[in-house]
Structures are given as C-alpha cells and as structure tokens.
Amino acid sequence: MTRKTLVTGGAGFIGSHLADRLLADGEEVVILDNLSSGARENVPAGARLVEGDILDTELVADLVRDVDSVFHLAALVIVQECIRNWDLGHQINLGGTIGLFRAAAAKGIPVVYASSAAIYGNRSGSECREDSLPMPISPYGADKLGCEHQARAMAEIHGLRSAGLRFFNVYGPRQDPRSPYAGVISKFCANRAADTPHTVFGDGLQSRDFIYVGDIARGLVSARNRAADSGGASVYNLCTGSEKTLLDLAKEIDSVAGRGTTEITHVKPRAGDIRMSLGSPKLAYDELGFQAETSLRNGLTSLWNSLEDNRKA
Ligand SMILES: NC(=O)c1ccc[n+]([C@@H]2O[C@H](COP(=O)([O-])OP(=O)(O)OC[C@H]3O[C@@H](n4cnc5c(N)ncnc54)[C@H](O)[C@@H]3O)[C@@H](O)[C@H]2O)c1
C-alpha cells in the first residue's frame, strides 16, 4: 500500500528536498505551507500543495487524519525576525508544533520535526552532544527546545511517537540567497557570482558545522522509519562532526568557482549570533545508521553548478 505523508513547510528549502525524496521512494506527498518564505515553484510535480497556516488547527487535524506520518518543518526560521516579532515566532514555532503534535497523537502516527542546533546556544570549545546542557540564546532556539520538551510530554500523556532533529547549518540548492537572512553559503555563492564583497559580522572566525540538504532529507526519512517502529520522543543531531570558519568557507567557494578572491567587508557582530557550532554525529549514527555522506567540496560544487544552471536559464 502506498504510504501517505504530510510535509509541513514542504514549499521551503529543506521541505522541498524531502518531498523529492519521498516521491522518489514511491510515497504520496501532501504539503502544508503558507508560502511565507517558501515558494510554489519549489513544490515538486507529484506533490499536492495545500496553501494554509500551521496555526489553523482544524486544517492541520483534517490533513493529519488522512496520512500515515508527518514531517513538520514549517517555522519562522529567521532568528532576527523572531527577535523582532517575539510573540509571532513563539506562536508559530512552538504553538504550531503543539497543535500538530496533538493531531498526530490523536491519529496515532509518528512525527519527525525540525529542531535546531540553536538549542545549544553559545558553547565554546566543545562539540554539542544530545546530552549537552541546552542553553539557547535566541527566542528561536528557546522555542525549538520547547518543541522537544512538548514532544516528551506528549509521549508520556498521549503516547506520541516522535523524533526531533537538531539540524546544524544546512546548505544546498533552493536556499534563497535574496533573503537578508539566507544561509551564509547561498549568500557567499551569490556574492561570488556577482563579484560583490561578502559582508561578515565580526571577525569571520565564527565556525559552523555545514551539512548538505540531500543528507538532511535522508536523515529525516531514517528518523521517521525509526520513530514509526519505536515509541517515545527521541532527539538527534543531524550534522557532519566537522567545523569550518566563515573565512575558510569564503576561500573554499572561491576555489570551487575558480575565479579569483572575493573581498570581505567586516561589520559589527549581530545580537543572538552563535560563535561556534559543532555537532556530534554519533547518536544518529548509532541509532539511525545515519552519516553525512557529502563532503563540503562536493556539496558546494553541486550548489555552484545548480546556481550556474539557473543563471543560464
Ligand atoms: N536551514 C537550516 O540550516 C536549518 C537549521 C536548523 C533548523 N532548521 C529548521 O528546518 C525547518 C525548515 O527550514 P528551511 O531552511 O527549509 O526554511 P524555509 O523558510 O525554506 O522553510 C520553512 C517553510 O515553512 C513555511 N511556513 C512558515 N510559517 C508557516 C506557517 N505559519 N504555516 C505554514 N507554513 C509556514 C514557509 O513558507 C517555508 O516554506 C525549519 O523548521 C527550520 O527552523 C533549518
């Protein structure tokens, strides 16, 4: 029997790659998205888009009743916007997730939801493991952590099966470089292509654990399959376990593009920005058999080539 799957936020960057993968695996895919940061063009042919809001609890319950599992990726993802619109971010990122958990618990189906490395806050000098003390320093990170607590409570009280995935810095095709808060990799690629300088907040020695979006889609599916077979609320890092500074990254992109060196303009550090972010991939490997397979060089090359194709089209 064909598996039927709901992907919230499926018109966005990560959600659309996940939808591609589910369709390729022969699943029927329904996407719930309000297109606030996602785009209709991202929705793959073969998926059904329902344009609506995660805060519409009746719509969410209706959609959940008709599927076998849910991936919940819809969120207000821009940290600076969550700081400006604290209450709205809280409603969408935590309130929307609770509504979705309640609907999934009522139907008795598993949920895999996007948490974030932002729950760890500003840890210096050590890698983040799932049992490290979470200390979010932004409302976005605090609400993502709240989702994990709610998943655990919902497992206790209503038997919800779930997996929360703490994504580190995800990059790849379809990440919108025009957004002022797009991932640093898409922005650096856009700057390289246009031959404009990179803007770096602070000294550029802040580091990140960059993971390719295709690896994330694979990790999401592995987590769903495990959550379907086991009870309770699990949480995993999805990361590579290796870090790069923004200055390293700028160099690597110049090398992939093969056209000289991009100038860097340093400006004041931003409030809420994290200095170092490095994850431990061990638990996801041990329990899900998941390991990132795409090297930074290969991931950047795929991204660069897809951007070149778009520019030529
Ligand atoms: N990209 C990363 O590096 C990263 C890192 C950690 C966690 N995450 C999480 O992964 C998930 C996907 O992020 P992304 O990078 O693909 O971002 P994205 O902005 O491309 O995708 C989010 C999608 O959710 C939709 N959406 C937003 N608010 C909604 C609402 N109220 N109702 C319905 N749909 C709504 C948007 O239109 C968009 O299509 C998010 O939960 C994000 O917090 C992303």
Overall pLDDT, averaged? 94
Overall tally of structural domains: 2
Span between termini: 39 Å
The CATH topology of the largest domain = Rossmann fold
Provide the CATH superfamily of the largest domain.
NAD(P)-binding Rossmann-like Domain
Q: What is the level 1 CATH name of the largest domain?
A: Alpha Beta
Q: Count the strands?
A: 13
Weakly predicted, low-confidence segments = none
* Cofactors, ions, other ligands: nicotinamide-adenine-dinucleotide
What's the topology here?
Blueprint: E1 4-8, H1 13-24, E2 28-33, E3 48-51, H2 57-65, E4 69-72, H3 79-84, H4 86-107, E5 111-116, H5 139-158, E6 162-167, E7 169-171, H6 184-194, E8 198-201, E9 207-208, E10 210-212, H7 213-229, E11 233-238, E12 244-245, H8 246-257, E13 264-267, H9 282-288, H10 296-312
Parallel strand pairs: 1-2, 1-4, 2-3, 4-5, 5-6, 6-11, 7-10, 8-13
Antiparallel strand pairs: 9-12
Nicotinamide-adenine-dinucleotide (NAD) is lined by residues 9, 11-15, 32-38, 53-55, 73-77, 92, 96, 114, 116, 167, 169-170, 183.
